[in-house]
Amino acid sequence: MPTSVSLIVDEIGQLCTIPTQDGGPQRGSQLGELGIITNAAVAISEGKIVNAGTREEILDNYHADRVISARGRLVTPGLIDPHTHAVWMGDRADEFEQRLQGVSYQEIMAAGGGINRTVQLTRAASVADLVEAAKLRLTRAMQHGTTTMEIKTGYGLNVETEMALLNAIALLDVEHPLDIVPTFLGAHAIPPEFADDPDGYVALVTDQMIPLVASWKEEHWPDAVYCDVFCEEGAFSLEQTRRIFEVARRAGLSLRLHADEFASLGGVELAIEMGARSVDHLLATTPEDAERLGMSDTIAVLMPATPFGLGIANTAPLPLLLQTNAIVALGSDCNPGTAWCENMQFTLALACRQLRMTPAQALCAATINAAFAVDQGFVAGSIEADRRADLVIWDVPDYRHLPYRFGTNMAGVVIKSGAIVYDSIPGV
Ligand code: NIG
Ligand code: FE
Predict the structure, then answer these.
(1) Which residues neighbour ligand 2 (ion) by CB within 5 Å?
(2) Is the pTM of this model over 0.70?
């Protein structure tokens, strides 16, 4: 007697299940294990995957009221974006133009532009306006195959607006189908009112903001809430980062770090020492720090859209990270300064060309490893029993098309927790 389920996705030409490696992320040179099943089907009930296998295995054992046919197309887990700054107001198109004329990102930041421009506009907005603006971005991401997204604060830089941003992030999780993972990034830049007293701002972060974030977590968020710092020349020093991390960790927050985007200040070593979940960017990472990552569980999140957006070379040491056995994931970094791109397909396309990832490595880095980078490695990022039924029917026949083609959307149908949230293929 077949078991009754709510939905079967049938006639999948190529199913990439993206398995864990010994129950964990795909480490080092193991990255790229796709778990391909051809002529496959997936059975779904109550928002979760019940089983995935060949068509015979699934159709012999399950019956569903609703069956959708992928008609020979590719199906993968929904993409996981482990690094975004998706809640902001306004834009910085003028700075893009300045950069094209030769002014650097750091020069713009030192002259009071950059992050602080966005802070000014964000502080003036209401939570409702912020949610509305961000919702459009989340919808664009979802329509391009993203089903889980980490979102950082960091455009408030005062108590009131940083908390407003956290509240906006919590509202987005309720009001939008995407699953959201929140990160407090109060230490994103020194706000103008503390320009002459950066340590005073660090004290505001440690003494006032972090305790409020910890009580916010108590009240609103049973899962991990992260504390991130932009550890960089012109932003926060290594010593300031340590101070913030120590307080955050004591307050029960998990850690992640913007490290080595422009200069290597030692953030990677500190993040590993303090048990951070991830270190992100890594364009200036030294061979020694790549070795350290290989011996740690801190995940290296690479974001090729950022150097692309800045028009600079992508110097992240991917071959070394894989060789040293580091865990590598991919993220979009979606933000108004360096990389306004909600589409993770473009991140895959760039990762293959700029970092020489194989298509299989890029896909696994943006699914199972990205899931582990936001502590969702046991509930998402892979198509296997009991995980969230987050999957994408791509309008292509095989996984290599995802990074091979670029500039148009290849997502055909996006299924989030078992529900169709986007459908661009008539008749599926
Ligand atoms: O990850 N580097 C710091 N934060 C962002 C940029 C934010 C902005 O410029 O608004 C990044 O690139
Ligand atoms: Fe970032």
Answers:
(1) 333
(2) yes
